[in-house]
Amino acid sequence: MQGTYIGQGRMLITPVYGGFLFAPASDLSITPTLVVHGAMEPPLTQYLWRALDQDSVFVDVGANIGYFSVLAAHKLGSGGRLIAVEANPDAMRFVRDSLAANWLTDRDITLVEAAASDVSGTVSFHRSERFVGDSSVHASASGIVERGVQTVSVPAVALDEVLADVERVDVLKMDIEGGEHLALLGLERTIDRGAIRTLVMEWNPRMLGDRDAAALAALMREWRSRRSTTTLLLDEEGDPVVVDLDDVLALPSHPYVVVQFP
Asked: What is the largest CA-CA distance in the chain?
């Protein structure tokens, strides 16, 4: 076992990459996996551990409780930067506490408590009490309607605003349960100025819904034609494998789609 209950509804996890991670004891989506294995999403864990170094700039959109943010902070040095974006205020408290418990707050870290969207303002956020990983701006993205949620208003922010002063982003990981298309529309200026090097995201038409899935597919095809992007999938070992974009878009889903910008 890689976790223990420490009271006040919290588990203390020993993640595979070292240090400490706090997780909500009542969660049924990611905490059980972390407690048993000390890791979640092994292919992405391995990929990011190899891809990031002390000078990397990593943007974690949909940071959740901070598993990948803390991983990145462990790898970063004085030349690196972490920007974590999370809409769920309950989850963001875990991010803050885990970074502090690992004595990582001396790094260049920016925490943005907001939902990534196409424009800044406010949005309805459907917060799942028991399945924290399913919380989303899409009420039915992962079936959370059937599981019971609390709908709250949260700030929304365009990533172009968050990244306005960032010259380069080495890896931007996005996992926001169906909100990807709107978030990427809010990233267009940053992509246009060539600041994004690698984007890692999930392709899941069911969570996106028909309209947003079609729009996201069109956007990715536009990147291929106008920006000569390369599309890859992560295998079980976290190694990126070049694939044809149309083959990816024909899949019912894939959790780790990597888009490399030239």
From this structure: 53
